[in-house]
Amino acid sequence: MPFLSLKFNLQKRVKLAQGLWMLYWLAVIVGIILFSLGIFFKIELRKRSEIMDNNESHLVPNLLILVGMLSCGLNAFGGKLCHDSLDPQKFSKMKPMLRPYMLLCCGFNALLLLLVLLCFLMQFAVYLTLAEGLKNAIRFYKDTDTPGRCFMKRTLDMTQIEFRCCGNNNFRDWFEVQWISNRYLDMSNDVVKDRVLSNVEGKYLMDSVPFSCCNPGSPRPCIQHHLTNNSAHYDYDHRTEELNIWNRGCRQAVFSYYSGIMNSIGALLIFTMAGDVAGLKYLSTALETMADPENPECESEGWLLEKGFKETLADLLSKVKTFGRANQVEEGGTSPNVTAT
Amino acid sequence: MALLVVKFDLKKRVKLAQTVWFMYWFAVLAGILVLSLGLFFKIELRKRSELMDNNESHFLPNVLIAMGLIACGINAFGGKVCYDSLDPTKFAKWKPMLKTFLVFCMGFNALLIATALLCFVMRIPFQFTLAEGLKNGMKFYKDTDTPGRCYMKRTLDLMQMEFRCCGNDNYRDWFEIQWVSNRYLDFSAKEVKDRIGSNVDGQYLMDGVPFSCCNPSSPRPCIQYQMTNNSAHYSYDHYTEELNVWRRGCREALLSYYGGIMNTIGALVLLVTMLEVAVTVGLQYVDTSLSTLANPEDMESESEGFLLEKTVKETFTDIMAKMKAMGKGAKVEEGGEEGVATVS
Lengths: 341, 344
Fold this sequence. Notes:
Chain A: One of its GO terms (biological process) is cell adhesion. Chain A is an all-alpha fold and 341 residues long. Chain A contains 8 helices and 2 strands, in the order βαααααααβα.
């Protein structure tokens, strides 16, 4: 008893083939979109690889680029199959390729599923890389004369301005590092000497933040220095002041940006796993079971599986068993020779 | 003697009609492009209208939008005519309208050229609007509690950060105005009182700039206050310091941005004009090749297509004669009426 069988006459067959052809061309466009999304994600990761310790994993964008190209190829071929299915001569040429093509499509869908899982799971890796990278970035902020780190200040400033964030968890992270280079500190000054000596590691720490933490939406000019000293500024209370500098931490801000990208890509992939495999199966079986092969206008039947779902599964299992038993028989045959000698 | 005559048989006519139909669909896309360019420019102007005193002229984007819509309509109609030209019954429907349509197309092409020129010329009044608007923007920077101006500070800060500029002509513009609101000045402090007293207008002026002027590429943390006082900062010379704050003025930065947009739009409109001229010429050939069939019943007969029926000079004298005749006709009417009026 075939699984989900439908009756087809010539008109229905033609309509099915045309509908499938359009669907396949839509799928080619979706494949191009996936390809460009992969390139976009790769570029975004490279842009900010400095704050991720140059250590971020490019697995997801690379897989996405591969999947996009494969999808374009497979769907273009599927469209060609559908286009030729209405001409019996061309279709008989294509017929032998149909079965392996549908297996390939099933394999491709499995790859898509794997990629969806990766999109959602790799976010953890991104989070950890970001945490480590930002901590180091804040430490190397002042090293604008060290080769390899001289652009860290600019990168971190631009990141804080663009993502509207300050520090790793919040602005107090800046109080714990020396972010002014020694080149710009007057070591003969008493204030500077006091600060440096009051610290175990000899660092010049202060309760200030860089200018990139400033919030343009604040009604008053930005207060960057002496943040915790209320008397240093007129009409200022650091406990209630909210708009002066950004309150959010950069790890949270940058992570939510990347996780947004990855979630959207995952959602689009789920949408792509379309049922065009089912449509192609219906079309091929409808063409094979034509009552009178010479007359194109006769009726035919199309189905999803040749036998019922349970029977097909039982068939597959028995095939796998016979395959295993054949191997065992061979081994059993060879081993007595070995033991005899 | 007709201008630029080309002989056509059935195959050539079919090919011509198909090519011109194809080009018309490209021209529809070009019309959509012009429309979206107009919309984009309008949105860009509205985004920063605060910095232009809410006074900027929206004439150019409106013209672009109108031209885009008209182009889409004309080209879709032209495409339909070309498609129908291969079927004599359908073409007979369109034939009477074609001459007027072609004249209308030529007028539209002239308007397109005028629009492209406008794109290049509108830069000049734009410069004045920007200069005035930015000056006022800086004056109202501190008024974050005045309704209607409370977002000026944020707009100006975001603009200076985005366009990497400071002040109107340069950063010294900030030294000439009070950009700290009185709400945040301690009037009991001696220093504040001195500064305000030393000034004719009673303004709190200082040699400092807002944080949005800071250049992130500077190797040292940003020096915003006491910028002209070398002794206030270690190892600092304001004459040679170049990377500390942005050196460009915002008027120049904004002008080059909008000027770039207008130049690009002008160039694209010129390209669209060339495409429109090409399709108009194509349609003229389609029309004339179908009108001069040697044997009207036989579709496969030969025919001739031309650009103008007579030479350029003769066509020109014809048009002048027609206009004169129209003018004289009107005068005769008026003269007749006047004669009647004076007699009675």
